Amino acid sequence: MKCDFCENPVVYTRKYSGQKLCSECFSNSIVRKTAKTISKHKMINNGDLVAVGVSGGKDSLALLKIIHEMSKNHNFKIEAITIDEGIPGYRNEALEIVKNFCSELEIKFRVFAYKDLFDLSLSEALELRDDEKSSSCSICGTLRRRALDHAAKEIGANVIATGHNLDDMLQTFLINMLSGDTNKIGWMDPDNSGSSIRKIKPFCEIYESEIVFYAFTNNIPFQTEPCPHMNEGIRTEIREFINSLEKQHSGIKNNLYQSVIRVSNIVKDSNYKEKVKCQNCGNECTGKLCSVCTTLHKLKEKQT
Ligand code: SF4
Ligand SMILES: [Zn+2]
Ligand SMILES: [Zn+2]
Questions:
Q1: For the CA of 226, the nearest atom of ligand 1
Q2: Is 141 in the pocket of ligand 1 (CB under 6 A)?
Q3: Helical axes 166-178 vs 252-270, angle rounded to 10°
Q4: Statement to judge: residues 193 and 250 lie in one domain
Q5: What is the CA radius of gyration of the chain?
Q6: Are residues 121 and 60 in the same domain?
Q7: 137 lines ligand 1 (CB under 6 A)
Q8: Which ligand is nearest the CA of 277, by number?
Q9: Which residues, in sequence order, are CB contacts of 132 under 8 Å at separation 6+?
Q10: Model pLDDT for residues 12-28, shown as the tens digit of each residue
Q11: Residue 155 lies in domain
């Protein structure tokens, strides 16, 4: 069977649109879609230094490759940052992959560890928590957001790009809905032009399965070993649920994504709170203490 756009054989059928693509046209479509998302939401501007958060997984390495290619023809620069949570036996392989990939592409790369930033590795933090109510991923996610902010400031970047894809966005939306955490839904709007450091997700409109296929067809090496804490939360179940819906109803992920963006916009406007400075660390927050200081304070209380 021939590709819809050229004479080459089909390697990928986009079920929700019926498009049949050869390997090259498929890859080009991913690059084009990423560029379109970046320009639609004004994610990158002239003169920006973009810190690409690279975990060593398929999404972040694919993003690094695409954004690196773009930076060659545009007026912005990129550097890679990796956050080392301190999860024994997991992050080491990823760090090696990222290091090699960055040196191949000649991209500057730096590692920032929770242990250096917060004086606690994730494993130590998890040992200190007094119950399982705070899930590993919620503690880890809170610390990671701060670690990324810190890393961007350290290297002088004004944009942080992460490899979150459309599936990640849908899962996060449903997790927040199911846990009653509607405030966080307001953070999901891709437009954050008002922030001092722009957080961008250029893959937010691309299916995870397509990023996997892109990584394979472009021979991007990535870590396949999952984090040992991955299945502790509800995310894996939600992921399977959304995938089973998509299997029966092609395109349902795209529909849900449109709803996420609309709802996020409404929640963002109705929940607007003046940002103040955390009394402990000076970072922006909406209460007396930011979520990182609150989390660390609770954990370190147990340490003494
Ligand atoms: S799966 Fe959870 S604990 Fe593991 S790195 Fe991701 S957020 Fe952290
Ligand atoms: Zn083709
Ligand atoms: Zn703080």
A1: 1
A2: yes
A3: 60
A4: yes
A5: 20
A6: yes
A7: yes
A8: 3
A9: none
A10: 999 999 999 999 999 99
A11: 40-270
